[in-house]
Amino acid sequence: MRRSLLPLIVTSVVLASSAAWTFFQGNDPGVGMTSAAEKLIASFNDEQQQTALLPYDTPKRVDWHFIPKDHRKGLQIKHMNSEQRELAHDLLKAALSQMGYDKTTTIMELEKLLHELEGGKGSNIRDPERYYFTFFGKPSTNGRWGLSVEGHHLSLNFVVENGQVISSTPQFFAANPATVKNENKTGIEVGTRVLKVEEKVAFDLVNSLDGEQQASAIIEDKAPREIRDAGSAQPPTAPAAGLSAYKMTDAQQKMLRQIIREYAAAMPKKVAEARLEAIREAGFRNVHFAWAGATEPGVGHYYRIQGPTFLIEFVNTQPDAAGNPANHIHCVWRDMNGDFAIPIDG
Predict the structure, then answer these.
(1) For the whole prediction, is pTM greater than 0.85?
(2) Which of 5, 92, 157, 331 has the fewest CB atoms within 10 Å, i.e. the most exposed one?
(3) Residue 265: CB partners within 8 Å, gap ≥ 6?
(4) Beta-carbon neighbour count of residue 71 at 10 Å?
(5) How far is CA 239 from CA 92, 285, 304, in A?
(6) Domain spans, the chain
(7) What is the pLDDT of residues 220-260, one digit of tens each?
(8) How far apart are CA 288 and CA 295, in angstroms?
């Protein structure tokens, strides 16, 4: 039997918040990512290299999505040997924070649960080893290269230039079930909630708003089915909607910051700090919080948080594979200056 190296993370991933932006610890990940990528590529045979290595300027670099697909760019974990899988996970660890890595591997492991809950339907695509690594250009500390790690409910995209991470978006995470509610044979515990903070604190925030604030924040009575422009190379450029952080109380601003930090903290210190510094420089008062749909769990709901430099979108409207309503989360962080290190106006 093929040994899976995906760690089974069965506890909820909750990052304690801090009042300051100086939460993160660690070193610049670009050099570590490059070294880990070089080691993984060196372990590939010729056929694997042809599958995993593409030119930097290929259109496939900006072709991203999180839906289950029969075919994707890159080399599947399934088609790596045990040593290569270890090296692939070393690369993930270099590219993400510990929290980001835990969320990523939990999302992968949830494929086992989907396979069980669906009674084996779609068994060819419900597979925790069906995640693809793709390199764009040659990893080097001199020059520019890209990385995609993608599969069902996961899309991570990076550009590294001269040993520095210059782009880390789109960053997409999803969870089905959002909260594990059914006993199962996979070993994933009931109560596992990989995207807990992203949802719970947002509910806390919207329900803390007074009537006047909610009138600004709630933009639609019904939640949209999906995040906007899913799979598009660039984020939607519509102006920010909803309630300005400037019109929130200190306690509400603290919750808003906690949500933003939770998304940013999937990345290593330098990347996360750069995101938060950009928000601060653009003015936190210019960040807006918008909500659509129900303000309680179990009914479809959606929010977005947008500032001059970033966009967060979150939606939970679909039932999970066991039929529990509104228990299937999609969420994304995008760069309003341009994803994939491509300026929006370029």
Answers:
(1) yes
(2) 5
(3) 15, 23, 24, 97, 99, 100, 272
(4) 5
(5) 34, 15, 12
(6) 29-175, 196-341
(7) 999 999 999 999 999 999 999 999 999 999 999 999 999 99
(8) 18
